[in-house]
């Protein structure tokens, strides 16, 4: 009797705990708020909430959830291992674990998917990359485009709405030479990046040690673009320029900027042929030649125009 019990116990260990206790498949629920979103997963057309059965394996499966009027989202299945079953599977000599792997019954399960969809404001467009772009980014660069940093997401959406319009807005650190009305103050900030990695490998006592450091601090030119986007979000098409811009370099490679959004009055709008920097410089030369302005006034206004380039 004791021999039979021992044999049964050893046989169960040799069969793989994941396979015996959990099986080869698992239930998975995909839900969203609001409900009724379409789900693209494993070549299946579903709608939330969706209950399905999937193989129990740690695969990098991509799910895309979409609903009219809301920003689409994508997400990779998140795998959670079971430490206790893995420990049991490692006795003896990890043979049960190999059995579980061969039957795609690795101890653990994929987590249920539950997402909240953000409504798309009027005039904005969906910004989710294609499946191929998402898969290429995670494979080649280790970047998850489905989950951009929270501080970056608003700027991604702003660029999708106002990216083409920023080219007509002038950004300058000083005051413009043209008359204007003030629309309001705009502020922006960008989070810097600083990280390092160590690579170490050896074969037969010979190896190499590698160190890689990466730092990124947003440039003032990049901050100008942020301020343009923010001003267009706040004040719309009335914005012709962001003036009197001041930058602040912060610890940790962070940088912030502040300026004043303005609308030009009494002259051609910025971006038209008559309002281009070249045309304004030519007009200044005419005024200097006719004596309408002094040399010092000419130099001051000329510098203001150049600062806005």
Description:
The chain is of the alpha+beta class and 309 residues long. The protein contains nine helices and 15 strands. Helix 6 packs across helix 7 and helix 8 packs antiparallel against helix 9.
Q: How would you characterize the largest beta sheet?
A: 4 strands, antiparallel
Look at the helices and sheets and give the structural class. Answer: alpha+beta
Radius of gyration: 30 Å
Percent strand equals 25-35%
Share of helix, binned: 25-40%
- Helical segment count: 9
The SSE order reads: HHEEEEEEEHHEEHHEEEEHEEHH
Through-space gap between termini? 91 Å
**Looking at the structure, what is the overall shape?**
elongated
What is the overall pLDDT average?
Answer: 79
For the biggest β-sheet, the strand order reads 3-2-5-6
How many beta-strand segments? 15
Low-confidence residue ranges: 3-14, 197-209
Short précis:
The protein is an alpha+beta fold and 309 residues long. The protein is built from 9 helices and 15 strands. The chain has helices at residues 2-15, 17-22, 83-89, 95-102, 131-140, 153-162, 220-235, 277-289, 295-307, and strands spanning 25-33, 38-41, 44-47, 50-55, 62-66, 73-76, 79-81, 108-110, 113-116, 170-171, 180-190, 193-203, 206-216, 241-249, 255-264.
């Amino acid at each position: 009797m004791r021999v039979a019990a021992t044999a049964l116990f050893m046989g169960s260990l040799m069969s793989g705990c994941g396979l015996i206790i959990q099986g080869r498949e698992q239930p998975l629920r995909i839900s969203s708020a609001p409900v009724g979103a379409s789900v693209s997963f494993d070549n299946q057309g579903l709608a939330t909430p969706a209950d399905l059965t999937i193989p129990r394996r740690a695969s990098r499966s991509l799910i895309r959830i979409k609903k009219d009027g809301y920003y689409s989202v994508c997400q990779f299945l998140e795998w959670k291992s079971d430490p206790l079953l893995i420990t049991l599977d490692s006795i003896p000599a990890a043979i049960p674990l190999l059995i579980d792997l061969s039957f795609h019954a690795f101890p653990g399960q994929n987590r249920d998917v539950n997402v909240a969809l953000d409504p798309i404001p009027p005039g904005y467009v969906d910004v989710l990359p294609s499946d191929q772009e998402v898969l290429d980014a995670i494979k080649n660069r280790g970047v998850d485009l489905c989950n951009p940093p929270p501080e970056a997401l608003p700027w991604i959406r702003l660029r999708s709405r106002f990216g083409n319009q920023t080219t007509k807005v002038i950004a300058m650190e000083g005051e413009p030479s043209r008359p204007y009305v003030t629309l309001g103050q705009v502020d922006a900030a960008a989070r810097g990046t600083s990280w390092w990695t160590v690579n170490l490998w050896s074969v037969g006592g010979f190896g190499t040690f590698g160190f890689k450091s990466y730092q990124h601090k947003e440039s003032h030119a990049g901050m100008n673009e942020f301020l343009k986007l923010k001003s267009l979000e706040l004040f719309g098409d009335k914005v012709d320029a962001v003036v009197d811009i001041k930058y602040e370099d912060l610890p940790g490679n962070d940088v912030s900027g502040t300026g004043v959004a303005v609308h030009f009055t009494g002259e051609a709008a910025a971006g038209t042929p008559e309002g281009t920097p070249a045309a304004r410089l030519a007009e200044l030369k005419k005024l200097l030649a006719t004596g309408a302005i002094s040399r010092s006034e000419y130099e001051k206004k000329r510098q203001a125009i150049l600062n806005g380039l």
